[in-house]
Amino acid sequence: MKDRILIIDDEEGIRTQLCWALAGEYEVLQADAPGRALEIVRTQGPQLVLLDIALSTSQAEPDGLELLATFLEIDPLMKIVMVTGHDERANALQAIAKGAYDFYAKPIDLEEIKIIIKRALHIQRLERENQRLSEEIERRHKFQEIIGTSPNMDQIYRTIEKVAPTDATVLVVGESGTGKELAALAIHHLSTRAAKPFVTINCGAIPPNLLESELFGHERGAFTDAHIQRIGKFETSEGGTIFLDEIGELPLQLQVKILRFLQEREIERVGGREPILVDARVIAATNKSLLDEVRHKTFREDLYYRLSVITLQLPPLRERGQDILLLARAFLNRFSAEYNKSKLTFSASSEKALMNYGWPGNVRELENKIRRAVILTLGNKINPYDLGLEAHDTDKRLTLQEIREKTERKHVQEALKRHNWNITNAAKDLGVSRTTLYDIMEKYQIKKEQD
Ligand SMILES: Nc1ncnc2c1ncn2[C@@H]1O[C@H](COP(=O)(O)OP(=O)(O)OP(=O)(O)O)[C@@H](O)[C@H]1O
Ligand SMILES: [Mg+2]
Description:
Radius of gyration: 32 Å
Strand content: 5-15%
Bound molecules: adenosine-5'-triphosphate, magnesium ion
CATH topology of the largest domain: Rossmann fold
């Protein structure tokens, strides 16, 4: 796209001359009076303006210097070159002090002014790029706890920024350890509810018979042990966000109640008679495929659709490229400080091993492996052995057969772990039948207990 230049001059001859000279390289617009000039700046956003400082204007109209100020308010990076008469040097300097890029004294030498324009636009491009980068740094800063600069994590940041300020329900999905809770927290922190509570409840960790009271509270005497009235997590999160972790584990009869809350914004305490209005935003997370659960009738379809309007899909660590090392180094620094070990670094073979490993347990697994390495290491360099990873040394000669078996075993084990040892899903993922998968497991003696 061509850069847009606006020429503001009341002398038609000058406008025509400049137009003619610049039209090849730029999109040239022109105005002979302040009103028209302002309109063009507002609607067309030229990158550069050539502004006649002595523009003849009526009393009511802004003069050249006033126009300059207004333009810069509209676009602070706009490049404005003042065109002056030979006796207007003082005015020209004043314009520069007010933010004009440069001035140029008539009569106009077209070749000279072209060079000035080119340079101005070049500087402007650098400034815009610089602005974009600092905005990006600032944006990253908002997600300070979330580490990662890979394109798919950038996508996540962008989505979080977009949905956070709305009150929309968000479903966060991703393999275990991908940072679902961290993402939920980021949404809360970037929302208007940031100053209010962020309440987490892990639906899979609480016995089903206690879960209802945990979520919704109970009245005194609601059941045998209910000696006192108790407020549930929903009410605790009033004004803030409730994070329903592992929502896939929620029993069906409680799913109805969550659905009701999403529709009516009302809950009922166990043993209570009155519905209670609660203002809470719901963020739910799961590492299961809720659609599968829907198919198996263990998850209500209507609730699924309510929850999944906005779905945040966190990528597995193995798809985040260099983020692996970025995270590894961040954890290394964190744990070095925590365990008072100074100057720890990764050996080259460790970095290679980190990059080559499949990370079925994602960021959590990486975090754990680094913690363990920091505790175990004796020297200053973390080696693959400290990490519990095999060195990728090429000097150990393996036969093709051995390599094949090793890789096969590793992939199968990882797939099973990824799918929580669900054979059907793991087999599907690996592109083999269940029988074949059983055979392979048998062949390599892969058992869940080994994990
Ligand atoms: N991008 C990231 N940057 C820094 N730390 C991360 C990142 N992602 C995850 N973590 C860390 O990894 C650990 C696991 O993250 P989190 O608990 O959010 O994952 P999860 O997806 O909820 O896992 P699970 O499914 O097992 O509950 C936490 O200690 C978290 O701080
Ligand atoms: Mg979690």
